[in-house]
Design goal:
disordered N terminus, six-stranded mixed sheet, FAD-dep_OxRdtase, FAD-binding oxidoreductase, FAD/NAD-bd_sf, oxidoreductase, alpha/beta
Length: 427
């Protein structure tokens, strides 16, 4: 059950002004809010849905919707910008591990972000996929990563749920820290609140108001907040916010059904003001088993590359499972009809999970960019963006918060994140 005092503290009137408005309350948005508040800024974090409070181990937060096993084999490792971007992400990951370790002492909130070190298991449907993975794993080995190709039978030994006869082979991907994203976000939010950030849930940021080409306010579904900076951590919704340009002044030219100004099309903006974020939302079904008896053993986070079905341990006695691109265009939210979809996906890969008792499913989204890499940077208009991290969000969130803080303070970040800037698409 939600903690009543926490819930009340995350609802209520909005501040009239804030130094920074953070749009999105997943792990990255929470870390950004914490780092900025820790630096002395007045911060409003506005989340469209419910913020995690740490009371429910199976919290369907925006972060949990994007949970997935790590997939360190990038789509582009062909001499383009992916190797440099990979180094940036690795540096963010290492720095985040240091910050997670120091967070309890700095914030007094305590961190139960559920980090562990584990390999991930990728199940390969055919010989062509095996060949592609063999090449990718060889490239990883040259970079010192401890990935390896294994037989399908070996995969079943590592993960007894796996139906080995369905696969041509498998890959065991190098161990890395894996975080429960809902728990990470909950603790980072507690740290942000401890430093004075204002947290508001069910409060979607719906558009950006500009004056002279720079940010002057953010409009939410509960009203307007004057600010000079907005950080976009809201998944694919970040693209719509980046393109919005509301009329300044007390009388907006157009209003939506809730009385909130309607964003103008991106074409109404000049070249200097326009920030184009190439983000696409992919649908993802997510579910959990009910508590299993006996408890499931620890298994690698496992991905069926052919079907996109994946599953992983969900402590203490559940299994989290999901599949990309569900076959029904359902609205986001708890959806009992997703249970049969998850069962069908599990039946091919892990038949025992297909027969396990499941809680009602959740339909969320995964935010993609054209090259599969995240977006992190700053725009001269007062907009900053930190989105598209997907399954890596919880691992890198604290360091991303530091980078955004440095951008706002006009300092050069210690980590070179220029390969993650949106400029890579428009050069």
């Amino acid at each position: 059950m939600p903690i009543p005092s926490v819930r009340r503290s995350r609802q209520g009137a909005l501040p009239r002004t804030a130094d920074v408005v953070v749009a999105g309350g997943g792990a990255v948005g929470a870390a950004v809010a914490y780092q900025l508040a820790d630096a002395g800024a007045s911060v409003l974090l506005a989340e469209a849905f419910t913020l995690p409070d740490g009371a429910d181990p199976v919290h369907f937060s925006a972060a949990a919707q994007r949970a997935a096993p790590p997939a360190p084999i990038t789509r582009r490792d062909d001499g383009g910008h992916a190797p440099a971007a990979g180094r940036s992400i690795e540096a963010l990951d290492l720095r985040s591990a240091e910050l997670y370790a120091s967070l309890p002492a700095r914030s007094g909130a305590g961190v139960g972000y559920g980090a562990s070190t584990r390999a991930s298991l990728h199940l390969l449907p055919d010989d062509d996929t095996v060949a592609a993975y063999t090449n990718a794993v060889a490239r990883q080995a040259r970079r010192g990563l401890d990935s390896m190709m294994i037989r399908a039978q070996d995969a079943a030994t590592l993960n007894p749920y796996v139906a080995a006869w369905q696969y041509a082979g498998a890959a065991l991907i190098a161990p890395e820290r894996w975080h429960a994203p809902g728990a990470a976000a909950a603790d980072l939010l507690a740290a942000a609140s401890d430093r004075g950030a204002v947290l508001r849930e069910h409060c979607m940021v719906q558009g950006i108001e500009r004056s002279g080409g720079t940010v002057s306010a953010a409009w939410t579904e509960h009203g307007k907040v004057r600010t000079g900076a907005v950080v976009l951590c809201a998944g694919s919704h970040s693209a719509r916010l980046a393109a919005s340009d509301l009329s300044s002044g007390p009388a907006p030219v157009d209003t939506g059904p809730a009385g909130t100004p309607t964003p103008a099309p991106a074409d109404d903006l000049g070249d200097r003001e326009r920030l184009r974020l190439p983000l696409v939302a992919r649908r993802r079904a997510l579910g959990f088993t009910l508590p299993l008896v006996p408890r499931p053993g620890q298994v690698p986070a496992t991905l069926d590359v052919g079907s996109t079905f994946w599953f992983a341990n969900a402590e203490p006695d559940r299994v989290m499972l999901g599949v990309e691109r569900p076959d029904r265009p359902l609205e986001a939210g708890h959806e009992p009809r997703l249970v049969p979809l998850l069962r069908r996906a599990a039946a091919h890969c892990a038949p025992a999970l297909g027969e396990a008792p499941l809680a009602p499913g959740w339909l969320g989204t995964r935010t993609e960019t054209p090259d599969g890499l995240p977006l992190l940077g700053a725009h001269g208009s007062g907009l900053l963006y930190a989105t598209g991290f997907d399954g890596a969000a919880a691992r890198v969130a604290p360091a991303v918060g530091e980078v955004v803080r440095d951008f706002l303070e006009q300092h050069e970040p210690d980590i070179d994140v220029s390969p993650l800037g949106v400029e890579r698409f428009w050069r």
